[in-house]
Design goal:
6 domains; alpha/beta; 893 residues; MutS, DNA mismatch repair protein, Chain A, domain 3; 33 strands; 7-stranded mixed β-sheet; Nucleotidyltransferase, domain 5; MutS, DNA mismatch repair protein, domain I; binds adenosine-5'-triphosphate
Length: 893
């Protein structure tokens, strides 16, 4: 809370001790209220009333709904009663956090005092919007809170994001036919708390929560560029990598303009700008993030049960945020991944070193946000003491890394600036006094030392007063006390009242006696009050000086904090790898995938004592690119599919993997279509969502992608579903050529492996005994023989008479089919796809468009014909056939 801190040249004063009942003189007139409201018309105005913050009228209704507070009413100036929602002063942060989570902007009005003028009119002292909250108390610990900005500009889209609590400020520019999809992926990753968009409608079709419209001219590239260069103190943006990226520049400039307007104290935190290339990351769309439960479990809705939940052994909140970033942003850059792997490997091999670093990291704490607080001018003496402790903890970490003898660890240490100069500064300025707690150290400010000495001598005088007055009056029970109403007093009990000297002035009668003051006591009290005020002012000045000096190093401090946060995250990966017996995967630039003895990291951790059955997976290279996975319900198909995706993802964040060994050709994107998920609110049925996700995969996947499809086609009728599943599988095999795992209950699809060169079957093994099924969870070559649906239904507790009836229905159905299950519909691999109306189609980057003309097709076919391999007869046949196709099927016409 800003109480007592200098802000915008004014000092905020609370009327401590005044309850709601005493606040009636503070009630604004409607006019005063509306004047303040007009300054930030889109914000909820919270009005300080003694020990409460109150919202009125429509604001009150919104607060009551979203902060979950009971609505009452209040007399409002002379305008009768209005709805009112009151937030207790001590619980303000709690309720502000709720309001911000709903995307509201909040303006807080308090009484302010100005030097020499005492308390003056109320003013807005803070404006908080979801993306501009820099105050650690209002932020989720292990998560970043991003203010994003989107600027479509011609065929490009600029995206910028800033976390004003950690100083992260980055941009990227997206272009080409996939720009919109990439934007959606990035927004899914960032999950911005607030998103700035131009008010001219350019970004209206972008789906993002909590959008804030800004004047479109603020997104004008030249203006934004000027804003950026001024802020960063540079002439060109070349060093930041975005000189030639007008859309990115525009988006970043808009962020600066917005902060300037809403919360300029945050601007100094943004000391640099990083230009990111989206091509460096593995593409993960929102569905895949959700399906793989990367940061949120589908079952619990929280981190527990997610990949992040099982990986997170970080010691600091900044480490936890970094780990979340790594999990959400796997890389494609082989050399960077190998650097990370080397650090993890060094840490896996050295448990003692890990323990030492972990304990030192505890001392570093959340350095990122601490630097954030200090840079915003919110740093108290306690914060600086903590900062000193954090900086002191860095050097031992670097020393441990260097003496480890591991070159990767030593190199990592060399990249971290211990900021010893800042530590020296802070140590000279603050101390943790055993009695007074955190305070400015003696010697930092001579004026402060003198004021403290003055106050101390008066306090010493007061401390001796009781003894002196007892001696003077002979009243042994005389006491010197203090209360808030009268200040210092001398109390004499009833039996001794006759001995009270003449210079005592009676102030108050209490049950046991009388309370007095003397002229000397009043004077001492005045001296103490004045000295306390002076001390407070001098301390503020000293803190301001220290803040200025430390803030000059904000950029270096934040860089060091970022590296330490990364170390914490990599350490966490090492701890988990060591505990789980994970191994270092071989990474390579190929389209191969080979996992031997792979396990699902989260399911394995949840099995508690039961053994997880490890399985292999070979895709691409010498092995088939597509695996059709069959097996009984509950047999472990989904687990197997997800485990392969998670192992690849772990490898591409630089982690070890839960496998005996793995060789992973880096993937450019991971796609999943798993389980039933409907979006009724968005107007899409389960089947519609399934098809939307499948269409996205077919449109976007490449030869380097990993595709995980679980029961595609399940959401519709059996025949339609089977047909769709087969067509999707064929397209993935023939055209997309991505490494694909395809789990299905349609046993008919297993016949595809006989016709398609790069498709193979595997199944999850199960045993059947007495109508019961035992799951072996082992992946074996070849197709499953049946679905075991009825046995699983029995296991689930379906009433026996229903299960028996189902078994007899099944027998009947099987007998009806004299022939084996129908083979999948035949088709010619070379035949062009034909839509229902007969028009041929092909897939381009823009979706399905008409195929090339017959002449083009003929030219290509001729081009690819190897004439030396044909007999004259075959060549003649070929010519007849082509002519027939041109003439519509009549060769000798
Ligand atoms: N390899 C394994 N080792 C041990 N237990 C496993 C293994 N794989 C799966 N399981 C257990 O079996 C349960 C069911 O697995 P899963 O959901 O993958 O089956 P499924 O074949 O996809 O089922 P359905 O077809 O009904 O969707 C898991 O929750 C897990 O507890």
């Amino acid at each position: 809370m800003a109480q007592g801190t200098a802000r915008q040249g004014k000092t905020v004063r609370s009327r401590a001790g005044r309850g709601r009942s005493g606040a009636s003189d503070l009630v604004p007139s409607r006019r005063q209220y509306l004047d303040l409201k007009a300054q930030h018309p889109h914000a909820i105005l919270l009005y300080r009333m003694g020990d409460f913050y109150e919202a009125f009228d429509d604001d009150a209704r919104v607060v009551a709904r979203d902060a979950r507070i009971t609505l009452t009413s209040r007399s409002f100036g002379r305008n009768g009663r209005v709805p009112m929602a009151g937030i207790p002063y001590h619980a303000l942060n709690h309720y502000l956090a709720r309001l911000l989570a709903h995307g509201h902007t909040i303006a807080i009005a308090e009484q302010v005092s100005e030097p020499g003028r005492g308390l003056v009119e109320r003013a807005i002292t803070r404006v908080l919007s979801p993306g501009t909250v820099g105050e650690a108390a209002l932020l989720p610990e292990g998560e970043n809170r991003y203010l994003a900005s989107i600027c479509p500009f011609g065929d490009r889209i600029g995206l910028a994001w800033a976390d004003v609590s950690t100083g992260e400020f980055a941009v990227t520019e997206l272009s080409g036919p996939r720009a919109r999809d990439q934007l959606a992926e990035e927004l899914a990753r960032l999950n911005p708390a607030e998103c700035l968009v131009p008010d001219d409608g350019r970004a209206d079709d972008v789906e993002v929560a909590h959008r804030t419209r800004m004047e479109h001219w603020r997104f004008e590239p030249e203006r934004a560029r000027a804003e950026l260069t001024r802020h960063l103190g540079v002439r060109s943006l070349v060093p930041f990598g975005c000189e030639d990226l007008p859309a990115a520049t525009a988006a970043a400039g808009a962020i600066l303009a917005y902060l300037e307007r809403t919360n300029p104290a945050l601007l100094p935190l943004l000391t640099g700008l990083r230009t990111e290339s989206i091509d460096g990351w593995v593409g993960l769309d929102a569905a895949t993030r959700r399906n793989l439960e990367l940061t949120r479990s589908l079952r619990t809705g929280g981190t527990r049960g997610s990949l992040l939940g099982m990986l997170d052994e970080t010691r600091t909140a900044m480490g936890a945020r970094t780990l979340r970033r790594l999990v959400g942003q796997p890389l494609r850059d082989l050399s960077e991944l190998q650097r990370r792997q080397a650090v993890v490997a060094g840490l896996v091999a050295r448990p003692t070193l890990r323990a030492a670093i972990t304990s030192s990291l505890g001392g570093v704490g959340d350095l990122e946000r601490l630097v954030g607080r200090v840079t915003q001018g919110l740093g108290t003496a306690r914060d600086f003491v903590t900062l000193g402790g954090a900086l002191r903890a860095i050097s031992p970490i670097l020393a441990s890394l260097r003496v480890s003898g591991d070159p990767a660890l030593a190199a990592f240490a060399d990249e971290i600036d211990p900021c010893t100069d800042v530590l020296t500064l802070v140590e000279a300025a603050v101390e943790d006094d055993p009695e007074d707690g955190a305070r400015i150290r003696a010697g930092f400010s001579p004026e402060l030392d003198a004021a403290r000495e003055g106050a101390m001598s008066t306090r010493r005088w007061l401390a001796g007063l009781e003894r002196r007055e007892r001696e003077r009056t002979g009243i042994k029970s005389l006491k010197v006390g203090y209360n808030k109403v009268f200040g210092y007093y001398i109390e004499v009990t009833r039996p001794n009242l006759a001995r009270v000297p003449g210079d005592y002035v009676r102030k108050q009668t209490v049950a046991t006696g009388e309370r007095y003051v003397t002229a000397a006591l009043k004077e001492a009290e005045a001296r103490i009050l004045a000295a306390d005020e002076e001390i407070a002012a001098l301390e503020r000045a000293a803190l301001a000086r220290l803040t200025r000096d430390v803030t000059a190093a904000t950029g270096r401090l934040l860089t060091a904090a970022n590296r330490l946060a990364l170390l914490d995250a990599l350490l966490s990966l090492a701890v988990v790898a060591d505990r789980g017996g994970w191994t270092r995967p071989v990474l390579e630039d190929s389209a191969t995938l080979e996992i031997i003895g792979g396990r699902h990291p989260v399911v394995e951790a949840s099995l508690e004592g039961e053994a997880f059955i490890a399985n292999d997976c070979r895709l691409g290279g010498e092995a088939p690119r597509v695996l059709v996975v069959t097996g009984p319900n509950m047999g472990g198909k989904s687990t197997y599919l997800r485990q392969v995706a998670l192992i690849v993802l772990l490898a591409q964040i630089g982690s070890f993997v839960p496998a005996e060994r793995a060789r992973i050709g880096l993937v450019d994107r991971i796609f999943t279509r798993v389980g039933a998920q409907d979006d009724l609110a968005g107007g899409s049925s389960t089947f519609m969502v399934e098809m939307l996700e499948t269409a996205t995969i077919l449109r976007q996947a490449t030869e380097r992608s990993l595709v995980i499809l679980d029961e595609v086609g399940r959401g519709t009728g059996t025949q339609d579903g089977l047909a769709i599943a087969q067509a999707v599988l064929e397209d993935l095999h023939d055209r997309v050529r991505a490494r694909t795992l395809f789990a299905t209950h349609y046993l008919e699809l297993t016949a595809l492996a006989e016709r398609l060169a790069d498709v193979a079957n595997v199944h999850l093994a199960a045993l059947e005994t007495d109508e019961r099924v035992i799951f072996l969870y082992a992946v074996r070559p070849g197709p499953a023989d049946r679905a075991y649906g009825i046995q699983v239904a029995r296991l689930a507790g379906l009433p026996p008479w229903v299960a028996d009836r189902a078994a007899s229905v099944l027998r009947g159905l099987t007998e009806m089919r004299s022939a084996p299950p129908p083979a999948p519909a035949e088709r010619e691999l070379s035949a062009p796809r034909v839509a229902e109306d007969g028009a041929p189609y092909q897939l381009t980057l823009d979706g399905f468009t008409p195929a090339p003309s017959e002449a083009e097709r003929l030219a290509r076919a001729l081009d690819s014909l190897d004439l030396t391999a044909l007999t004259p007869r075959e060549a003649l046949d070929w010519l007849f056939e082509q002519q027939a196709r041109l003439r519509g099927g009549n060769p000798r016409h």
